[in-house]
Every structure is written in structure tokens, then in C-alpha cells.
Amino acid sequence: MLSFATMDVLDKIIIGSTISAVGHLQGRHEMDESLLHQDEIAIVRALSPRKRSEWMASRALLYTIAGLPERARCLYDDFGKPYLLGIDKHISVSHSELWCAAMVSDLPCGVDIQVYSDTVRRIADRFLTPDDLLLVNQSENPLQTLHLLWGAKECIYKAYGKESSVFAKTSLSPQ
């Protein structure tokens, strides 16, 4: 197996043709460009050292669960959705600090992982409807509820795979 970084796979779930997993990166790592294709190097060089390490970890997790005979190039379509060149599978990846998540499926899919942060409070009105905000304000743990709603919308957006502002103002609150 090709290794990008030292990472623990903490949990893996398989449902039908869909495999998802969560990983924890063991510290920051320098990028070994010999493990990447030229088009991936251009993508990764544009990232900060921290994001570069997270990118590498999320791809290591992706390749671990994909079970491919060799590593395929991980590129992005016109809407920023990642795909594996030449592989007829849908993928989704996410990373936040030392945590990463990946998903591989025969169907469109989306995965999100997020370290709790007050940032979501500042941007909540950009992605939540008034009904969603009411749900947040009535919850026992508003920060947790904000992150759950953010994560759900991120997963839907990633599975959809096209640019759209519709998700920002689609309520996830029970009516």
C-alpha cells in the first residue's frame, strides 16, 4: 500500500457498495512529491503546509478504503468535486485539522468532518434558514447543532456535485 502519511483509520463503515472511514493524522508531514502525479503536485503546492498535510492524509485514507490495485490520480471537475481519474466510482473527502474522512461509492456521495469551532456561529446566516436558526437557538447545545446542520448541508452539496446556492437556504429543520 502506498503511504502518504502516518494515519490511524479509526472507523470504517460499509453499506452496500459504499465505504466510508474516519482517520486521525499523526502529526504534520512534509509532502513527498514522488508519491504524486504532476497534476496533483500543482494542486497541492498551492496549499498552506497545514492544508497540504490534511490533503495528503485524506487521500491516504481514500486510497486505503478504495482498494485499488494502484493509486489513481485524484483531480477535480469544473465544480471542484474530486474524482479518481479512470475509476468508475464516486468519491468524497473531507479534512479538518488532524481529522479526515473519505467515502467511495457506486452512487453520488458526500462526507464531511469538522472540528468544533466558533467560526460556524459567524457564518450561520449564510447557510441556515430562519427555521434552522430557530432550531439552533432552541437546542441544548447550539454549537453542536450548528455543526450538525453544517455537516449535513456539506454532505448534500458534495453529493450533488454542482455549484448551487440552493442548499444554503434549504431548511433541514423538521416542519
Mean pLDDT, to the nearest integer, reads 84
Order of helices and strands: EEHHEEEEHHH
Q: Helical segment tally?
A: 5
Question: How many strands appear in the DSSP assignment?
Answer: 6
Question: Which structural class do you get from the secondary structure elements?
Answer: alpha+beta
CATH architecture of the largest domain: Alpha-Beta Complex
Relevant CATH superfamily of the largest domain: 4'-phosphopantetheinyl transferase domain
Oligomeric organization of the protein chains: single chain
Shape: globular
Largest sheet: 4 strands, antiparallel
Instruction: Give the spatial strand order of the biggest sheet.
Output: 1-2-6-5
Please, how many domains?
A: 2
**In angstroms, what separates the terminal alpha carbons?**
48 Å
- Give the strand content: 15-25%
Radius of gyration: 17 Å
Helical fraction: 25-40%
Q: What is CATH's topology name of the largest domain?
A: Ribosomal Protein L22, Chain A
Low-pLDDT residue spans:
none
Q: What can be said about this structure in brief?
A:
This protein has 175 residues and is of the alpha+beta class.
Structure, explained:
- The protein is built from 5 helices and 6 strands; from the N terminus they run ββααββββααα.
- With 175 residues, it is an alpha+beta fold.
- A 4-stranded antiparallel beta sheet has the order 1-2-6-5, with helices on one face. A two-stranded antiparallel ribbon has the order 3-4.
- A hairpin with a 2-residue loop joins strand 1 (7-15) and strand 2 (18-25).
- Helix 3 packs across helix 5 (142-160) and helix 4 (130-138) runs antiparallel to helix 5 (142-160).
- The mean pLDDT is 84.
